[in-house]
Amino acid sequence: MSLYRVIIQGRLDFSTHRSYDKAKKMYQYRLENYFKSDSLFKEADEVFNDEERTLDIPRFVGQAFEKTFKNTVSLLDYCAQFAMMGVVKAWQTDSGKVLNYADIEPKSDKVAVQLYQKGKKLSKEDDMQQEAFAQLTKAIEKYDQHAQAYERRGNVNLKLKKYADAIRDFKKTISIDPSNPFAYFGLAKVHILKGDFAEAVDQLELVCKKSLALQPIYWKARRLKADCHFKVEEYEKAEFDLRLFTKRNFKEDDPNYGWKRHALYFYGRVLFEQEKFAEAIPIFQEAIDTKDCIDTIPQEDIYFHLGSSKKNAGKNGYVSDLKKASEMGSKFAVAALSGSK
Predict the structure, then answer these.
(1) How far is CA 221 from CA 146, 238, 244, 299, in A?
(2) Closest CA to 216 of 175, 185, 189, 171
(3) Among 15, 31, 47, 174, which residue's CB has the most CB atoms within a 10 Å radius?
């Protein structure tokens, strides 16, 4: 039997004393009678907060056998069905590779829970945003402390371009549950749309603090933060985020996977702006070689900057790159070639 690294974090909110007391009692009962105390948390008091009526795990990092991890997840999932809202995420990893992952949240027949789950599902469909808004609003009316419903409705408002309403919803989420990284991410997106990049960076830094590198949102925040730094010419700060992002190997089902070329291109750009021309060359070359992209960066722009980097670094081959960029339609490459004659 092997020990594995385990990370667990999250919070579940119980709307009544009765639900809370039942969940806490059943946790202890099942721990002792079903799992023979083989859990990462040996006592209910380790995770239950009587004052706030929550099951709260800010962030647990430790080692456990696979069976212990699965027992813990089973216990937490059972208790989640007594809760009104919240989510607990759990990872079992080995050398950085995720072996088991659990996303634990209430899915009971409580009205507010069902309304939220329906609204959450609808919010993922672009043509169902109005219907999603209605369901999430009903969930909030049933339970006005539903942080997740506010956060999800904030994203719906963002898609509907109701930015003031989106900000209100995201801030409401944070006032209830300041550990929710998605609310800070939503605020950052609004600030980016408004051109307030400094405030967006502040929010994205909070996303990174509130999330884990195992979560896609952590890397989304890193990439967007780098974009903001680039826009205000904070190249050294952008370089730090982009170096981390481009070294990460994302799986094809990760939403960050298609953004690799985008990150490489801007990584090369920030190096270029800092006159680190030799360092920029392999980055631009990797950007050219990267496939499966969802960005809209013209290939001729990458060839232009590759050729310009080679020229400034005193390397051969820059004329060939500039010619490729010119043939693809780069006016900058045409001008550069004219100037080199």
Answers:
(1) 24, 12, 12, 25
(2) 185
(3) 47
Answer yes or no: are the C-beta atoms of 112 and 139 closer than 8 Å. Answer: yes
Q: Helix 260-273 to helix 216-231 angle, to the nearest 10 degrees? A: 30
For residue 181, give both structure tokens: 């990284």
Sign of the four-CA dihedral 36, 41, 43, 48: negative
Tell me the average pLDDT across 162-179. 97
Cβ atoms of 301 and 322 closer than 8 Å: no
Q: Please report the pLDDT score of residue 340 as a whole number.
A: 60
In angstroms, the CA 273 to CA 260 distance is 20
Residues 6+ apart with CB under 8 A from 325: 300, 301, 303, 304, 307, 332, 333
Question: What's the pLDDT at 255?
Answer: 95
Confidence of residue 16 (pLDDT cuts 50, 70, 90): very high
| φ/ψ (deg, to 5) at 328 | -80, -10
Please tell me the distance from the alpha carbon of residue 89 to that of residue 278, in angstroms, as a whole number: 42
Residue with the two structure tokens 């950007």: 287
pTM score: 0.94
- Of 337, 341, 339, 13, nearest in space to 173 by CA: 13
Measure the CA dihedral 311/313/317/319, to 10°: 0
pLDDT beyond 70 at 26: yes
Using one digit for the tens of pLDDT, what is the confidence trace for 299-329?
A: 999 999 999 999 999 999 999 999 999 999 9
